[in-house]
Amino acid sequence: MTTAPAPDAAAPSGPPPLTMTGTVLDAPDPHALAGFYRRLLGWAVTMDEPDWVKLIPPGGGPGLAFQAEAAFVRPSWPAAPGVQQMMMHLDIETPDLPASVAHALSLGATLADFQPQPDARVLLDPAGHPFCLWTPTHS
């Protein structure tokens, strides 16, 4: 007969502490895409390596990173059968939707053909990742 090991009194009672540090986007040129988001958001570069760039917001918090991926395929927006689908998108709040859209377009974003709602605009970054600029609506 075997006996179960004695419980370890020092074992943690819950999950280990975890901290979300950021979101990572694949890109054929991570430096170019990081430059777009740096200018769009006004965030600072904190890591700059040959295949990796990370940005952080001025007040701290989770950042946005970009990694080189030679096999990157631009996602389709909206989703369509048989083509690369979007795996995620970024939601970026703004108090002035028209000015923010104009700013993003001036940096190299493109306005998506399909716009699902009036208080948001779907744009594509230079690598083709969809992102939403949106403004809160009040009822």
Keyword list:
139 residues, alpha/beta, Signal recognition particle alu RNA binding heterodimer, srp9/1, 2,3-Dihydroxybiphenyl 1,2-Dioxygenase, domain 1, 2 domains, four-stranded mixed β-sheet, 28% strand, globular
Overview of the structural elements:
By secondary structure, this protein is an alpha/beta fold. The protein is built from 2 helices and 8 strands. The strands form 2 sheets. A 4-stranded mixed beta sheet has the order 1-4-3-2, covered by helices on one side. A 4-stranded mixed beta sheet has the order 5-8-7-6, covered by helices on one side. It is globular and about 70 Å long. The chain starts with 21 loop residues before the first strand and ends in a 5-residue tail after the last strand. It holds the Pfam family Glyoxalase_6.
Question: Could you give the topology of this structure?
Answer:
Blueprint: E1 22-27, H1 30-41, E2 44-49, E3 52-56, E4 63-68, E5 90-93, H2 97-106, E6 110-111, E7 120-124, E8 130-134
Parallel strand pairs: 1-4, 5-8
Antiparallel strand pairs: 2-3, 3-4, 6-7, 7-8
Protein name: VOC family protein
Organism: Streptomyces polygonati
Biased composition (Low complexity): 1-12
